[in-house]
Write a sequence for this structure.
């Protein structure tokens, strides 16, 4: 992923190529034109991943009691995942039918760790072996999905937003507990990632910075941190991408998996599961539920219809969504954010222009709309927040579900 203006510069050079030459592999190797990357990259990478963990003594003491079931979903993850976990002393059982790379992905309809169906075989093996955590990486091992025991002989899938919240909480907590909190700690999230990230960061005295969707923008923000003297701690986006170190500068499923394993052991040492810690986070910061909605507009007029919807929103912004008042509006295309009650005091948005509108509701819920840049669909992200009151988390979950349904009903009145 490359940011402007280098993206167009690179593709211009690619498009200028008129002839693609080829030669036999052995000839390319003998001439030094093809170099096979092996341990000179693998070894430093594995060492780096392990060096980013906070509690090696805890891992050494507890790793033998933790069982991980893993699937690379026919991708490249098995070697680095098994090596890292093995060197940490963890017992890893990889789903045998999905261990070897296979571009046909014969056992899944779509090799995406966001999809519950893709983890079916791993979850079944996890139940059989009574695993402590089930992990899955996508084919190039840069995204991570996990599931944890739910106490009822099954597993609960952790969403990308939830795992990102657990990571941020654990890493900032660890820096604080170990006396290693940097002077200006800062995290990064995409604009469609849960606002829970910002609340967690603030509770530890850290900043949380927004960027456009895509890890190229996260890496760009990391570079800005270096210029401004901020100390990078963690970055995430809701689509199961995490960055727990600053060497890779892209989402990295292997280092995220290692941090997740240590985090699992840490909370177990405190007598808690990841689900229990997540509930504590919700109790402190409000219950957060995230749901997406896509509306497709096929045919030659589809793009025009989507542009018309975005134009209509800009001409007539909604006053409420799901019966909840809109308090602030951020239009990233025009680069402004304003309070509905005082639009004349609009502030400049420090983000590259993009066709995105965000509505901040009075209860802390955030609703985002943007047309897809690659498909004929318009995408909505509802990031709902509900205070946890006397009824506890169960009541907050129920209220949140009703709230999200009401918001989506209002959205569907516009797009059908």
């Amino acid at each position: 992923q490359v940011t402007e203006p280098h993206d167009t510069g690179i593709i211009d050079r690619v498009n200028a190529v008129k002839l693609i030459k080829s030669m036999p592999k052995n000839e390319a190797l003998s001439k030094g034109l093809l170099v096979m990357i092996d341990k000179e990259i693998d070894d430093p990478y594995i060492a780096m991943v392990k060096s980013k963990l906070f509690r090696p003594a805890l891992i050494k003491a507890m790793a033998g009691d933790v069982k991980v079931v893993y699937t690379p979903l026919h991708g490249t993850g098995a070697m680095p995942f098994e090596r890292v976990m093995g060197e940490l002393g963890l017992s890893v059982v990889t789903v045998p039918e999905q261990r070897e790379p296979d571009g046909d992905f014969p056992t899944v309809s779509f090799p995406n760790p966001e999809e519950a169906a893709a983890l079916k075989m791993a979850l079944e093996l996890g139940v059989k072996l009574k695993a402590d955590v089930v992990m899955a990486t996508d084919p190039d091992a840069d995204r991570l999905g996990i599931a944890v025991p739910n106490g009822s002989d099954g597993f609960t899938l952790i969403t990308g937003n939830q795992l990102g919240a657990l990571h941020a909480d654990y890493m900032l907590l660890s820096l604080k507990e170990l006396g290693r909190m940097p002077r200006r700690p800062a995290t990064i999230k995409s604009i469609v990632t849960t606002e829970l990230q910002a609340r967690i960061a603030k509770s530890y005295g850290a900043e949380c910075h927004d960027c456009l969707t895509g890890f190229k923008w996260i890496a760009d923000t990391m570079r800005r941190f270096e210029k401004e003297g901020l100390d990078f701690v963690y970055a995430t986006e809701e689509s199961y991408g995490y960055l727990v170190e600053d060497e890779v500068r892209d989402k990295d499923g292997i280092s995220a998996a290692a941090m997740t394993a240590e985090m699992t052991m840490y909370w177990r040492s405190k007598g808690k599961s990841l689900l229990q810690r997540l509930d504590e986070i919700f109790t402190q910061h409000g219950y957060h539920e995230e749901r997406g909605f896509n509306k497709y507009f096929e045919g030659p007029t589809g793009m025009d219809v989507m542009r018309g919807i975005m134009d209509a929103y800009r001409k007539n912004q909604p006053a409420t969504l799901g019966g909840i008042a809109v308090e602030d509006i951020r239009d990233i295309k025009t680069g402004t954010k304003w309070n509905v009650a005082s639009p004349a005091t609009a502030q400049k948005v420090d983000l590259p222009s993009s066709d995105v509108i965000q509505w901040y509701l009075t209860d802390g819920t955030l609703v985002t709309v943007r047309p897809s840049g690659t498909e004929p669909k318009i995408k909505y992200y509802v990031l709902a927040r509900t205070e946890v009151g006397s009824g506890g988390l169960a009541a907050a979950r129920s209220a949140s579900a009703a709230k999200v349904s009401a918001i989506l009903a209002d959205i569907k009145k516009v797009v059908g």
In short: The two ends are 34 Å apart (CA to CA). The mean pLDDT is 96. The first strand starts at residue 67 and ends at 71.
